[in-house]
């Protein structure tokens, strides 16, 4: 995009974040009252083949909390934390927020951004790992929004999705502190023997196997980049907790929130089955560590704090659930660093890498074939994007 084509009142992208002139926080969205629940679930599941029974059940999870998902409030807090962090760091970059499944809708926010003169947008998705649901689907949502703006005759901005941040210290360190706090909250006599159960969203094994770039796909249910990335984070946290407490604890990656038809294989074991197995083996206590999620939204509040915790109570197994990063100032600072390092690379510089674990820094641009959809659709901000 040349300067001449920029609207005359458009703010120029100057300074630290250049070429970016805005950050878009892109999230899932959730209902904010009982009347929102059914239309929200329709948005989420359109064309996704979720059994009706499962939808009724999930609707009940939301109604049990007054029809309000905590996710929008948590994104508002993150937005405020990002604005504060940017201001404190002298970074003059406006931050917007839009969702896939509920207001404020992505398309409306992108339209507002274009009207505000934003031409080059960095996008942070509230999903830290590679997978269709956590990466490509957001890229498809960006493409849909751009297509709508093009139909409306608006000049399209360029959108760049920031790299996966599962192994960024600003994402991992708050979770390490969370595990230490949960251990401290357990009764003293079971603390040293407590197991760690790292949890994430179950996805179909076929989706897991094809997550990440093509060369990281696996054939036999090993789980591709999705499982590998989670295992790497789990190991970093388990090692740090051992270093801090002087006690090595058994740990495992397990899954939650399965939703598809029963005959389709999804990643297992489920957290509740895992708690039962650990109890059977004589584990004295378990800390559930939801590394797959960025905030304490409904999947955490219901599936872990309600369902799995009830299962543990029934077993007489002491459990604690550790915190997600939410609006932790270290996570807000990490987002700033992600924007600035990407901006530097876009300017042709080579900023220092920043990651923990063994997998290295994730790619900036999803390659062709990364996290493929069952039915191919246009996706923005990747090598196969039909947009600039
Ligand atoms: C990998 C992953 C993440 C983590 C990455 C990320 O954060 O993006 C995630 C997050 C979330 N999932 C959420 C809610 C739902 N997910 C559903 C359904 C599904 N999720 C899937 C995967 C993921 N989901 C999949 C493979 C399905 C099956 C349908 C399909 O193939 O698309 C359904 C339908 C009903 C059901 O069956 O559960 C609901 C209501 C909320 C909002 C919570 C709130 O309201 O607080 C959040 C943050
Ligand atoms: Fe991807």
Automatic annotation (TrEMBL):
<dbReference type="InterPro" id="IPR001015">
    <property type="entry name" value="Ferrochelatase"/>
</dbReference>
<comment type="similarity">
    <text>Belongs to the ferrochelatase family.</text>
</comment>
<dbReference type="GO" id="GO:0005737">
    <property type="term" value="C:cytoplasm"/>
</dbReference>
<keyword id="KW-0479">Metal-binding</keyword>
<keyword id="KW-0350">Heme biosynthesis</keyword>
<keyword id="KW-0627">Porphyrin biosynthesis</keyword>
<protein>
    <recommendedName>
        <fullName>Coproporphyrin III ferrochelatase</fullName>
        <ecNumber>4.99.1.9</ecNumber>
    </recommendedName>
</protein>
<keyword id="KW-0408">Iron</keyword>
<dbReference type="InterPro" id="IPR033659">
    <property type="entry name" value="Ferrochelatase_N"/>
</dbReference>
<dbReference type="GO" id="GO:0006783">
    <property type="term" value="P:heme biosynthetic process"/>
</dbReference>
<feature type="binding site">
    <location>
        <position position="201"/>
    </location>
    <ligand>
        <name>Fe(2+)</name>
    </ligand>
</feature>
<dbReference type="InterPro" id="IPR033644">
    <property type="entry name" value="Ferrochelatase_C"/>
</dbReference>
<dbReference type="GO" id="GO:0046872">
    <property type="term" value="F:metal ion binding"/>
</dbReference>
<keyword id="KW-0963">Cytoplasm</keyword>
<feature type="binding site">
    <location>
        <position position="138"/>
    </location>
    <ligand>
        <name>Fe-coproporphyrin III</name>
    </ligand>
</feature>
<feature type="binding site">
    <location>
        <position position="299"/>
    </location>
    <ligand>
        <name>Fe(2+)</name>
    </ligand>
</feature>
<feature type="binding site">
    <location>
        <position position="69"/>
    </location>
    <ligand>
        <name>Fe-coproporphyrin III</name>
    </ligand>
</feature>
<comment type="function">
    <text>Involved in coproporphyrin-dependent heme b biosynthesis. Catalyzes the insertion of ferrous iron into coproporphyrin III to form Fe-coproporphyrin III.</text>
</comment>
<comment type="pathway">
    <text>Porphyrin-containing compound metabolism; protoheme biosynthesis.</text>
</comment>
<keyword id="KW-0456">Lyase</keyword>
<dbReference type="Pfam" id="PF00762">
    <property type="entry name" value="Ferrochelatase"/>
</dbReference>
<dbReference type="GO" id="GO:0004325">
    <property type="term" value="F:ferrochelatase activity"/>
</dbReference>
